[in-house]
Specification:
With 369 residues, the protein is mostly helical. Helices cover 50% and strands 10% of the residues. Strands 1-2-3 form a 3-stranded antiparallel sheet, covered by helices on one side. Helix 3 runs antiparallel to helix 4 and helix 8 runs antiparallel to helix 10.
Length: 369
């Protein structure tokens, strides 16, 4: 095995080279980056140097850009062609406000694990949460891994994630949800009912077209999202079909209009903006005597109510459009059946009498033996 992990020395590269003249040479070195991926990259570099010594001899050293210089390509080209508008904005903010001021002047191959650890300590001191710092590290890791793919650096430094608490979420109970619906009016009431009964995201509601609504079959197909005027595929990159409840179907039929292609729009048929949707929801909350909430709380409410009604987490995952069941597991504690079913499952296996055997039973078993 050319790459292995020693208990004391860590990741090692142990390679035997067979040259065309029949000679052999064994190289055994400790990997400068102590991860399996780093050791494998180090092995490839050693093979290239040993088997093709002329390929690098006499050639000028490869120019490695600084993080600041590489960020121009990362944000301007890679993110623009591979990420949604919301992701591009998030990456740009993290890079420009946090990563570049701290690490921007460093060459990509000079960014080591100790530099990243100092960055984490600095951000903690500034008051950022471990979750926010992990978001920064995610962007840095993607930029560095892209640099490896571009063959600008051989290996990327090891990044240790911070332990962060699982994010808490807010939701309305059944009575609060009813009060919110009663306090809303106009198309905002229809939007709120749609969010509470389908769990679609706000961007997906704003991107919903009448062509995506099937009133006969009682379902909608989530094909796109509208984030601040940017029309794109839904989060996760795939469309999904969501059935409509009788109440939801009724209000959508009553809401039918000919203003334009969007189900929810301005009077002239143009799409609604995120900011314009905020105040009608807050006003409805105020009239209902509820705390201020955002549209995403309605999505959490949809999922929470389903779980509390005993719907399986797998079904909830499909309806929400989650790519992994782990994302849906945050609602598991709301199910009244989870603990009960777990304990009841013990009775499926027959263990026989649960009381202690009598002395006579013990004596008989000894005689039989």
């Amino acid at each position: 095995m050319s790459v292995r992990k020693d208990k004391k020395k860590g990741w090692l590269v142990d390679v035997v080279f067979n040259f065309p003249d029949g000679s052999t040479r064994r190289v055994k070195k400790k990997s400068p980056v102590q991860t399996k991926r780093g050791a494998e990259a180090f092995e490839r570099m050693l093979r290239e140097e040993m088997l093709n010594p002329s390929a690098t001899a006499g050639q000028p050293a490869k120019e490695v850009p600084t993080l600041s210089k590489y960020a121009e390509y990362f944000l301007g080209t890679y993110a623009r062609t591979n990420n949604k508008a919301s992701e591009r904005k998030s990456k740009k903010m993290i890079m420009e406000l946090h990563l570049l001021p701290a690490l921007g002047r460093m060459r990509l191959d000079k960014i080591k694990m100790r530099d990243i650890e100092r960055y984490k300590a600095r951000k903690l001191k500034e008051g950022l949460s471990p979750k926010s710092i992990n978001n920064h590290l995610t962007v840095l890791r993607r930029a560095l891994s892209l640099a490896v793919e571009d063959e600008l650096i051989e290996v990327m430094p090891r990044i240790k994630w911070m332990k962060a608490r699982k994010p808490e979420f807010d939701y309305l109970d059944f009575e609060e949800a009813d009060r919110l619906v009663e306090a809303a009016d106009g198309q905002w009431r229809t939007m709120i009912i749609l969010a509470l009964r389908t769990g679609v995201r706000q961007s997906e509601i704003l991107g919903l077209r009448w062509d995506d609504v099937d009133l006969k079959r009682g379902q909608i197909q989530v094909n796109q999202g509208n984030w601040r005027g940017h029309i794109d595929t839904p989060k996760g990159g795939r469309s999904r079909i969501v059935p409509l409840s009788p109440q939801c179907l009724q209000v959508l039929k009553a809401h039918r209009h000919l203003k334009g292609e969007f189900v929810f729009c301005n009077e002239d048929g143009s799409h609604l903006s995120d900011g314009k949707c905020k105040w009608p929801l807050w006003n409805a909350c105020k009239r209902a005597g509820l705390r201020r909430i955002g549209w995403h709380v309605l999505r959490h409410t949809f999922a929470s109510h389903l779980v509390m009604r005993g719907v399986s987490l797998k079904a909830v995952q499909e309806l929400l459009g989650h790519t992994t069941i782990e994302m849906t597991m945050r609602y598991a504690h709301l199910s009244p059946e989870v603990g009960r079913d777990a304990v009841a499952s013990l009775d499926v296996q027959s263990y026989g009498p649960m009381t202690a055997p009598s002395k006579g039973q013990v004596r008989k078993s000894v005689i039989k033996k």
